[in-house]
Structures are given as C-alpha cells and as structure tokens.
Amino acid sequence: MRGTAVSEAARIRAIWEAFAAGDAMGMPTEFMCPEDIRKAFGSAMPEGLPEGLLDPSLSLTHNILERGSVTDDTEQNLYLLAEARRRGAVTLEGVLSALEAWIAETGAVEKHYIGPSSLKALEAIRKGTPAEEAGMGGTTCGGIMRTPSAFLWNVKQSEEELEESIRTSLLPTHNTSEALEAAGAYGFALRAAYSGASMDEVFAAAEEGGRRLIARAAWMGCAPSAVCRIRKARQRAAELDEAALLDYVYSLWGTGLPSADVAGAVFAIFAAAKDNVWQAIRLSTVIGGDTDTIAALAGALSAAFAGGHNIPGPVMDTVRARNRALFESKYPEALQA
Q1: Global pTM?
Q2: pLDDT tens digits, residue range 63-121?
Q3: 45-49, long-range: CB < 8 A, 24+ apart
C-alpha cells in the first residue's frame, strides 16, 4: 500500500477513518483483560483476532452502545478539528469551546465519557482557575488521545507550530510532563509518517517530539517515560511474535489510562503492523486495557505511514452509517466512501 499516489485530502480522510474504525473496534473490549476478551468474543476471533466489528452487548463498559459506535476519542478529536478549522489555528479559547460543546451536545458526563483529568480541570476553569493551573493534574491518556486533531487540522505546520498546537490542545486539562511527553511523541511521529518518513525516521521523530513537549512542562512528575517505552517497543517488536509482544506490553507495562501505558502500546503495535492498518487495529482490540484509544491511535499512525488503509469495506460502511450525524456536523469528508 505504501507509496500509492493519492490526494492529500484522501490521505487525511484515510487517517481519520482508521482512527474512527479503531475506536469502534476497540470500544467493546475496553478495560477488559485479555482472558475475558477471549472468553467473551472467542467465537468472533477464530484465529485470536476479530474478523469484524464485535458485539458491544458483551462489553464490560459499553454494553448499551450499538455495533460500530465511536466513543469520546473520535468525538473530542472531531470537535477540536472543526473548531481549529473555524478559527484558523489551535487556540486555548477554541480548545475550551470545543470541549464544552462536546460535553453539552453528546452527554459526555452522563455517558461517563469524560475522563477524570478533563472533568476536574474544566470544572476548575469554570470557577475561575487559570487554564495552565487547571491542567496541572492531568496525567492520563486524554492528552495523547486528542493529539491527531492538533496535527491534522493543518498538515503543513512546521515543527514549531505543531509543538505549540499540541501544547495548546493539552494545556487546560493535561499540562503535565507525563501527558505532554506522550502527546508530543505521537504528534511528531504522526507528522513524520504522513510525510513519507521511514520507520527509523518515524521513531526518531517520536523521540524528538517527546523531548520538545516535556521541556514545556511546568514541572517534572515522577512517572515512566513514554519516549523510553517507545524506544523499547520497537526493539521488542523485532524480537517477539505478535502474541508475545501483546503479552509483554500488557503484563509488564500495562495498558491502562496513564499516558506512558497508551503510548507504549500504540508504538509497539505500530512497530509490529507497520503499514497494515487493519492488523494494527485488530491487535489493539485484543491487547486489553484502554483498547479503543490504543486501536484508534495505532490505526491512525499506521494509516499515515501507509498513505491509506486496508480496513474491510463492511467495517468502514458500518462505522460511517452509525456515526453519520457526528461526521456530517464536524467532518463531512469522512462520509465519502
């Protein structure tokens, strides 16, 4: 797939489609352990990986959703994307406006979609706390989760502009060294992959982005390094088969809400799948933990690297149809088959 000549709009759409499909694929297995995923969905995974969208009625956390539904990962990113496009930049005011609109219009609090860091920070801002202070407790993956919008609203950004866009996106809710490092690593890797970089260059860009953004933190928290995990992820992906790699990441690092957990899992799966977007999403779906965020981010990074995606048509058609209202209002290009 790599190297196929497609338009810029089509390449960007493919990344968003992979993100949304990954979100929808990982939604039913979110916060289940690998053993319970196998028990619940084994009949749909004859070779240990899903062949299509799984049944959410068997989900631990999303059993009231319909097959193909996206979650807060896609919703937040598309709200932020639309606001950045409208304003012509990623601004603090725009980020706050987008997040407040997302909460009000999607029932995020009632659906328990909004994470603890974001909810606490936004409540503090409403009461008058400066945004930079409000976000100084946010260490979870809500920061890296919304990084795609910081790059994809304008893929022609310079490194300096992207650094500022990522920081501004995180500032009100995830202004910590842990969150900034992981988001910087992912954002710069996404930029490199989109630009046609090699695997070596994508991983080098991840380290550069992590260093840039962690340097912007007000103080250094005591936490695992996302950059160190990313570096190790590529090494382990070269040494282990896919099953052993997933077990290594889940069992030794964890795949929960911490930023370094999600970053490590995303880059390990990307290192294994490379430009095979569907494989990246399928592996993410069964790793356990925060599977929807991992699958969305790994799928998007793989699609940027590939310049397209190989997600089966029926899966993509269902995701488009189920989330039509969201796409129509925030990113209508996603509805173009």
Answers
A1: 0.97
A2: 889 999 999 999 999 999 999 999 999 999 999 999 999 999 988 877 777 877 788 88
A3: 45/286, 48/243, 48/286, 49/279, 49/282, 49/283, 49/285, 49/286
Please give the Cα distance from 235 to 215 (Å, whole number).
25
Strand partners for 140: 258
Nearest residue to 19 via CA among 298, 296, 267: 296
Judging by beta carbons within 10 Å of its beta carbon (0-12, 13-18, 19+), is residue 58 exposed, middle or buried?
A: middle
End-to-end Cα distance, the chain: 18
Residue 20 near residue 321, CB atoms below 8 Å? no
What the chain holds in terms of domains, given with CATH numbers, is: 8-335 (1.10.4080.10)
pLDDT tens for each residue of 123-177: 999 999 998 899 999 999 999 999 999 999 999 999 999 999 999 999 999 999 9
